[in-house]
UniProtKB/TrEMBL annotation:
<dbReference type="InterPro" id="IPR013185">
    <property type="entry name" value="Transl_elong_KOW-like"/>
</dbReference>
<comment type="similarity">
    <text>Belongs to the elongation factor P family.</text>
</comment>
<dbReference type="GO" id="GO:0043043">
    <property type="term" value="P:peptide biosynthetic process"/>
</dbReference>
<dbReference type="InterPro" id="IPR008991">
    <property type="entry name" value="Translation_prot_SH3-like_sf"/>
</dbReference>
<protein>
    <recommendedName>
        <fullName>Elongation factor P</fullName>
    </recommendedName>
</protein>
<feature type="domain" description="Translation elongation factor P/YeiP central">
    <location>
        <begin position="67"/>
        <end position="122"/>
    </location>
</feature>
<keyword id="KW-0963">Cytoplasm</keyword>
<dbReference type="InterPro" id="IPR013852">
    <property type="entry name" value="Transl_elong_P/YeiP_CS"/>
</dbReference>
<dbReference type="InterPro" id="IPR012340">
    <property type="entry name" value="NA-bd_OB-fold"/>
</dbReference>
<dbReference type="GO" id="GO:0003746">
    <property type="term" value="F:translation elongation factor activity"/>
</dbReference>
<comment type="function">
    <text>Involved in peptide bond synthesis. Stimulates efficient translation and peptide-bond synthesis on native or reconstituted 70S ribosomes in vitro. Probably functions indirectly by altering the affinity of the ribosome for aminoacyl-tRNA, thus increasing their reactivity as acceptors for peptidyl transferase.</text>
</comment>
<dbReference type="InterPro" id="IPR011768">
    <property type="entry name" value="Transl_elongation_fac_P"/>
</dbReference>
<feature type="domain" description="Elongation factor P C-terminal">
    <location>
        <begin position="130"/>
        <end position="185"/>
    </location>
</feature>
<dbReference type="InterPro" id="IPR020599">
    <property type="entry name" value="Transl_elong_fac_P/YeiP"/>
</dbReference>
<dbReference type="Pfam" id="PF08207">
    <property type="entry name" value="EFP_N"/>
</dbReference>
<dbReference type="Pfam" id="PF09285">
    <property type="entry name" value="Elong-fact-P_C"/>
</dbReference>
<keyword id="KW-0251">Elongation factor</keyword>
């Protein structure tokens, strides 16, 4: 059993007969009244996000998990296929288990969280950032940079990211996977 002091990003807990992964949390200690923890949790079975508040000291049933490195192989439209980098076994996961599937290119190595009780994969954690090539974008208009102007750009995985005006087709950019936002241009 865990308590609210053990809450951290990535913790998997059993709540309302389902398994949830904590994606955001905030410990709040108001001037008047007891402390509490505000959380944002994602169901690992259906992908729904739930906002919940736990009072301080509340007991939580944590789920023991293991992490393994898997390589993304391909997407067949319905499932995403991964291969374990240690024993080369393959698994398939639905899109709801993935955080940002549109930023994942073939060959990407990700961390898969597996429930130790029944060996069922719960979720996939992407690296903090990925480097993708811009395949389509409008040319930037000179003199249109008085503020932080951005334009949409399509990357090699098909995702559309807002980028600064100086980014052109063929450039490689670093994208923050948690928010799906442009971080910087990568020089080669």
């Amino acid at each position: 059993m865990a308590t609210t002091s053990d809450i951290r990003n990535g913790l998997c807990i059993r709540y309302n007969n389902d398994i949830y992964k904590i994606i955001e949390f905030l410990h709040v200690k108001p001037g008047k009244g007891p402390a509490f923890v505000r959380t944002k949790m994602r169901s690992v079975t259906n992908g729904k996000v739930l906002d919940n508040t736990f009072s301080a000291g509340h007991k939580l049933e944590d789920v023991r998990v293991e992490t393994h490195k898997f390589q993304f192989l391909y997407n067949d439209g319905e499932y995403y296929h991964f291969m374990n980098t240690e024993d080369f076994s393959q698994i398939q996961l639905s899109e709801s288990a993935l955080d940002n599937p549109q930023l994942m290119k073939e060959g990407e190595v990700v961390t898969v969280i597996i429930n130790t009780e029944d060996n069922i994969p719960l979720s996939v954690e992407m690296p903090a950032s990925v480097i993708l090539e811009v395949t389509a974008t409008e040319p930037g208009v000179k003199g249109n940079t008085a503020t932080n102007a951005t334009k949409p750009a399509t990357v090699e995985t098909g995702a559309i990211i807002n980028v600064p005006l100086f980014i052109n087709e063929g450039d490689k950019i670093k994208i923050e996977t948690e928010k799906g936002t442009y971080k910087e241009r990568v020089k080669e």
